[in-house]
Amino acid sequence: MNEQVGFVFCKVIDGSGLSADVPLETCSTPLPEKGTFWIHLDFESEQSRNWLEEKSGLSAVTVEALLADDTRPRAASMDNGLLITLRGINCNPGADPDDMISIRLWMDDRRIISVRRLRVEAVNDMRKALDEGNGPESPGDFLVMLTDLMSERISGVVDDIDEGLDRIEEMIGEREPRKLRSELADFRRMIIRVRRYIIPQRETMVRLYMERIGWLSDSDTLRLREIAERTMRIIEDLDLMRDRASIAQEELNGRLSEQMNRTMYAMSIVATIFLPLGLLTGLLGINVGGIPGADTPWAFPAVCGILAVLAIVEYLLFRRKHII
Questions:
Q1: Which residue in 186, 187, 139, 185 sits closest to 165, CA to CA?
Q2: Distance in angstroms (rounded) separating the CA atoms of residues 118 and 188
Q3: C-alpha count within 13 angstroms, C-beta hemisphere, residue 45
Q4: Closest listed residue to residue 208, CA positions, set 186, 182, 226
Q5: Are 63 and 52 spatial neighbours (Cβ–Cβ below 8 Å)?
Q6: Same topology for domains 3-255 and 267-320, yes or no?
Q7: pLDDT score recorded for residue 23
Q8: Which of 56, 75, 166, 270 gives 20 to 30 Å between its CA and that of 7?
Q9: Lowest model confidence (mean pLDDT) among 1-10, 120-129, 161-170
Q10: Could you give the C-alpha distances from 180 to 157, 248, 260, in angstroms and in order?
């Protein structure tokens, strides 16, 4: 399919798990007698916007919702259909997985219009499944399969975060705390960003299975409820990981503080030992007459010996007082 005109692809789902590609120019013709149109559009294309506004048959409110910059997950009934916005993992090259991307859907019993800005891997999986004969058989099945695929990828990223936290917790006592702080901060940011979109997505899933929609079967509703419960478990896992990350951060901060205190303590001991030695050498170094031993050849070795004995005495005194 030619993506330069804004369409990524256009298919007819025939109800058996298979699909057939149809020419782009037929996407505005009357709907097929059997099956469901699936039209996938590129958000950035001006041609896509023009098609939605002029040839899709959707109201201006629905078109505006499909093209809105705000992509918070939601579900709402519009134009005798269902408007859905979902967030998924960004699997595009060079992207951070937690930088979640959106897909907007308008669905009824005969037509599905999906709009995306960046490539959504779950959509590619759906397309591949349809080409292989394992795709959805109805709009309700389509919605369930798409949300399930997106949820699986989110679960995979959450599992990766969990494994990363496990590794950091194991290395806290073995590795330099400063090297772990930045890595732990990255994981905490990932948790916050994923959780930010998963919570409204769970509310969207609840709204979907509670909606009374004719083309959603009881089986579809039950499966959507199961996906909503899985999303809730993901949120609970993220909350637990957030707490674990906070505890690990506190432990790292404690180790850094302890390390700094030990360093400052050692410097204080050294300064305390050398303070009287510095006082003595300062007195002997003043540029006035009458300095003892100024004309005596053995005076310098003698002073060095006195300083060494004084340092040893101070060290033994500190050890006896349990200062060091």
A1: 187
A2: 25
A3: 18
A4: 226
A5: yes
A6: no
A7: 65
A8: 75
A9: 1-10
A10: 20, 10, 16
Burial of 269 by CB count in 10 Å (0-12 exposed, 13-18 middle, 19+ buried)? middle
Are 272 and 253 in contact by the 8 Å Cβ rule? The answer is: no
Side by side, which strands form the sheet with 7-13? 19-21, 7-13, 36-42, 111-116, 101-107, 81-88, 74-78
The pairing of strands 36-42 and 111-116 is: parallel
Give Cβ neighbours of residue 92 (< 8 Å, ≥ 6 apart).
101, 118, 119
Containing 166, the helix (H) or strand (E) segment is helix 139-171
- The number of residues in the chain equals 324
**pLDDT tens profile 121-157:** 888 888 888 888 888 888 899 999 999 999 998 998 8
Q: HSE-up of 181 (CA within 13 Å, CB side)?
A: 10
DSSP 202-240: HHHHHHHHHS--TTS-HHHHHHHHHHHHHHHHHHHHHHH
What's the rounded Cα separation, in Å, for the pair 215 and 228? 19
The domain defined by 267-320 carries CATH number 1.20.58.340: yes
Cα-flanking dihedrals φ and ψ of residue 106, to 5°?
Answer: -125, 130
> Domain 3-255 - what CATH class?
alpha beta
Tokens found for residue 161: 């975060």
Sorted by where each begins, the domain ranges of the chain are: 3-255, 267-320
Q: Say if pTM beats, i.e. exceeds, 0.90.
A: no
Q: Is the Cβ–Cβ distance between 68 and 36 less than 8 Å?
A: no
Q: Name 13's bridge partners.
A: 19, 36
Residue 15 burial class via C-beta count within 10 angstroms: exposed 0-12, middle 13-18, buried 19 and up: middle
